[in-house]
Every structure is written in C-alpha cells, then in structure tokens.
Amino acid sequence: MIFQIRKDERKIFEVIGRAAEDLNFPTYVVGGYVRDRLLARPSKDLDIVCVGSGIDLARRVGDCLHPRSRVTVYKRFGTAALKHRDLEIEFVGARKESYRSDSRKPTVESGTLADDQNRRDFTINALAISLNKHDYGTIIDPFNGLEDLEAKRIVTPLEPGKTFSDDPLRMMRAIRFATQLGFTIDPATFRSISENKERIKIISWERIATELNKIMLASRPSIGLRLLDKSGLLDYVLPELAALRGVESRNGRKHKDNFIHTTKVVDNLAERSDDLWLRWAALLHDIGKAKTKRWEAEAGWTFHAHDAVGERMVPKVFRRLRLPNDKLKYVQKLVALHQRPISLTQEEISDSAVRRILFDAGDDIDDLMTLCQSDITSKNPHKVKRYLENYEGLRQRMSEIEEKDHLRNWQPPITGELIMETFGIPPSREVGLIKDGVREAILDGAIPNEYSAAYERMLVVAADLDLSPQKS
Ligand code: CTP
C-alpha cells in the first residue's frame, strides 16, 4: 500500500529522502507518526530510522533545509534531532536489541529495518513508510499492522511474553493506547500482561506515572482504569484504588462497588473538564472508603470520615508516583471537601454554612462543584436530574452570597501584626485566638466582612482574654 503523503509533508520527506540517497542509507518514517497519520490523529513527533548512522543523516538533512536547521546530537543514544516548522524530527540508526531479564537497559547493535520493526511494541507501532527512490511512499508492514489498525486491535508483533519482558512498560502502554484510541487488546496479548504483571516493578515510577497521566487525559479514562484492574497491574500501581473493588452484602443490603463508581466519576468529570489534576481528584476522592467501611445495624454500610481519611492518604500516592508537589494541596483539598456541597443541598441551610464552604474552597470552589456534579452516578435519570438541580440551586446561592460578602480568597481584615501592635503582645496563642474569633464572627454572619466591624470585634474578643489596647 502507498501512503498518501500530505502537501505539508512533501518537502521534508523529499529532503530526508535525498539526503539518505546521498549517504546511501535506506531510510524510513516509523512508529507513532505513521500510526497517528493513518488514524487521522495530530502528530508532531516524526521518527526516522535509517540503515546507517542516524547522526550523520540528521546533520545532512539539517544542512539541506532552508533555513539550515540546528541539529542536537545525543551521542550516548546514537540519535540526533532537529526541529522543522512544528515537527520534532528524530533520527536513529536501525537496531537490533536484546534485553537482560533484570533491567530494561538493552544492549544495542545495528541492524536492518526488519530488525528494528521486530523490536517494537505493537503491530500498529511497527509500520514504516519508505523514503527511498525505488519504493518511495510504500508502507512496509511485516506484522499486518494495517489490518490491526482497521480492526482497532492492540497486539504485539512477537510472542507477547517476549515483547513485554523486553520492556515491561509496554504493558502500561498497551492499556494506554487501548484507552486513547478506543482499541481492544488482543486476548493473547492481554493474558500475557496478566502473567507478566510483576515485571512492572523494574520500571521507574516516573515512567509509570507518564502512562497513567495519559490514561487520565483520555476522553474515557475508565477504559484504562478497568483494564489496569482486570490485568492485576492496579494492585501494584494504585493499590488504594484496588482496595475499593467489590461489593459486600449483609442482611440483603449491599453497598456499591466503589472502584466501579470511581471510574464512572472520572469519566463524568472528563466530559466536563480537561484538567489533569481535577481528574486526579476525581480518581482519589473516595480512597478513604476502604479503611472507613463499617456495618452499622441501623444505618447499614457507612464510610464515616472517608473524606478526611482520603485527604491524609493522598500524599503517599503522590510521593509514590512522583506526582508534582505543587498539585498535592489542590488534590487533597478537593478530596477533603467533596462531601460538603452534598450536605448543603440536603437540608434548610444557613448563609453561614454557604459562607464557610466559600471560605474553605477559595478559588477552587468551581472545581469542587464540578467534582460533586460528576460524583452523581445514579442510573435513575429522575434522581440525576434532581441532584443536578439541587447543585444548580446551591451554585446560585453561592454566587448571591459571594456577591454580598466577597469571601472567595478572603483576606482577614484584621492581621496578626495589627493584633500584636494594638495589644502590645508578642507572637502567641492569643494572637491566633483573636484572629479566629474575628473570622468566626464574619463567617457566622454576626458582623459584616469589613474593617471597622472586625476591629470592634477584635476588641471584644481580646477583652475576654483580659487584653486591652496599648495607649499610644
Ligand atoms: N516503542 C516501543 N516500546 C516502548 C516505547 C516505544 O517499542 N516502550 C516504539 C514504538 O514503535 C513507538 C515508538 O517507539 O511507536 C515511539 O515511541 P514513543 O514516542 O514513546 O510513543 P508513540 O508510539 O509515538 O506514542 P505517543 O507519542 O503517544 O507516546
């Protein structure tokens, strides 16, 4: 089959083809670029394999481009890269690799195009397009990758046990591609993931997290989360989530499967937001449920304080997966607060309760509400409608109170410095007590959120502590 080269590709492909001919290196476009182009997905990383030196070819291509392109050489890997328009182009010599069982570091020898295709992860990633004169544009497809693209199938080119033990990260990649592309994993390939799951332990957490994040950013992350579960990889990668799996029944009363529920919440959220960290908050919102599950004769199954317990579990997940520290507090906050809005829709609530959630959530109040809306997974459309209307009502009320009281990102009108100065006291417990007293009065609605009322209240709280203002 001949690949339909697009207008914008014509020039760069021809330049590479000509440079390759000058050097007498058979040269091909390979891997993800070919796959994504055939699937009509955007692709910015162009990988070029040649039978010869990738570094020499890159230099030659760099010289032939107008304007000339700067080549970055990675000597240690024998690769070189250059930028052309919005493409990142990487050049590498075709290789044969063999791996040792205790490491992912391969020993590398040069090889033919066929050797290079053999060592790739999936048939759909092993397609090559020739840039050579005699068969320019021909797709070279030794493993029927085109058929698998058509059938939407992830399958390894070699016996799957070999492909996965060569590089166990590929188990995560299989699941990630299935999620991103909506493909199914071939049964023998999937069985092999289950059999080799322990080998994932030799992969660094950073690389595992990169794949997890790609799963989380897909339009339906639940596909990947459930495959991770089914293959057994979840027990190693996110045991806190694996612990949510299952349903228990007592006296005919069942609780829901909190793992399945979580995957639905993540999908619901993915429909509302592309924010990776809000999606992580959805993934982790119920992780406290396994530890807090109790059977109570009257109430049935309960998960008291699972929000607070979950909040305390988040740092360990972040540390293990090397997730960024500056996102930790945000995810923790949403996990901690995710039950609050529900309680605000259930009863006749006071302005003060609404003020408190505005104060506690600060700038993240909209994200919190989005999480809560996504947390509705009832199959009963009437209930879903009612719950969503309740949240709409709450949002309305929040915006009225916010307009009146300006509590979002609230800065206390009375600072610690002012308290110390007014009463001539050093930093101490009393300073905190006075600040808390003023804040509580504002949140309770006992005084308005403004300086003079807060100053008066400060004097009252201080008097209770036997403090009076210093004469100046
Ligand atoms: N590859 C592999 N095994 C891996 C990683 C990569 O065989 N563990 C091969 C595949 O042929 C892949 C190519 O190297 O297509 C390029 O890898 P990479 O850029 O990581 O992935 P892409 O397939 O391009 O997909 P994405 O850009 O979505 O990560």
UniProtKB/TrEMBL annotation:
Domain HD positions: 259-353
Q: Which GO terms of type biological process are on file?
A: tRNA processing
- Every copy of the tRNA nucleotidyltransferase/poly(A) polymerase RNA and SrmB- binding domain together lies at 182-243
Q: Which GO terms describe its molecular function?
A: metal ion binding; nucleotide binding; nucleotidyltransferase activity; RNA binding
Domain (Poly A polymerase head): residue spans on this chain: 27-154
Q: Which UniProt keywords apply?
A: Magnesium, Metal-binding, Nucleotide-binding, Nucleotidyltransferase, RNA-binding, Transferase, tRNA processing
Which cofactors, by name?
Mg(2+)
Q: Cross-referenced PANTHER family, in alphabetical order? A: MULTIFUNCTIONAL CCA PROTEIN
What NCBIfam families does the record tag this protein with?
Answer: HDIG (TIGR00277)
Q: Which family does it belong to?
A: Belongs to the tRNA nucleotidyltransferase/poly(A) polymerase family.
Q: Please state what the protein is called.
A: Putative nucleotidyltransferase with HDIG domain
